[in-house]
Amino acid sequence: MRVVLADDSTLLREGLVRLLAEEGHEVAAAVGDGDQLIAVLEQAAEQDEKPDAVVVDVRMPPTHTDEGLRAAVQIRERWPDIGVLVLSQYVERRYATELLTDDSEGVGYLLKDRVVQVDEFLDALERVSSGQAAFDPEVVRQLLMRSRRSDPLGTLTAREQEVLREMAQGHTNAAIAVRLHISQSAVEKHINAIFDKLDLISTSGYSRRVLAVLRYLGT
């Protein structure tokens, strides 16, 4: 796949360039801030050479606050066919939920520590480039640290919560079945039960799967 990288850490950026090259992927550009990232993508779009995916840090120059996030949101609006994998040093709830609120297809959010787990990083990148979601399990876990006493989520069984957690990470039914060592029909049964307990009726124009994940993340 063709990838564009954006991270102000030269060490991490060059390390990712080398890693992706060794895995047979093409790094079309590697830049240090959000403005450069958008400029590279504009040029690529004009030449009909858009990348399959972008890897972008949340905090980059000049303010080191949310430049990367704003670039990611802009990319999603202007070039929705480009997968976006966001990297962050910490779990930042607002950023993670903002990425999920509109459309989670082709979007991922990983902690930078996950990058050293090469297989997991490459898997996440490949998933977002193919239009799937990829959310770090630790991101999901921390987003769920809240009371559920009066929440319908509290009515879910332990297995249903496991299935929904896997859904929140962007896994398909088939992948969930493999990861939880159950049949795919069992996964489908649990998902239908989740929809019923969360009172998510089938409505045209809305994905019950996305709505369930958003409810799970507390948005």
Automatic annotation (TrEMBL):
Entry keyword Transcription regulation: yes
Keyword tags: DNA-binding, Phosphoprotein, Transcription, Transcription regulation
Pfam family, one: GerE
Positions of modified residues (4-aspartylphosphate): 57
Domain HTH luxR-type: 149-214
Molecular-function GO term, any one: DNA binding
Domain Response regulatory residues, every copy: 2-127
UniProt superkingdom: Bacteria
Gene3D superfamilies linked to this entry: 3.40.50.2300
Record-linked InterPro entries: CheY-like_superfamily, NreC/VraR/RcsB-like_REC, Sig_transdc_resp-reg_receiver, Tscrpt_reg_LuxR_C, WalR-like
GO aspect biological process, one term: phosphorelay signal transduction system
PANTHER family recorded: TRANSCRIPTIONAL REGULATORY PROTEIN NARL-RELATED, TWO-COMPONENT RESPONSE REGULATOR
UniProt name for this protein: DNA-binding response regulator
Organism from which the protein derives: Streptomyces nigrescens
Lineage: Bacteria, Bacillati, Actinomycetota, Actinomycetes, Kitasatosporales
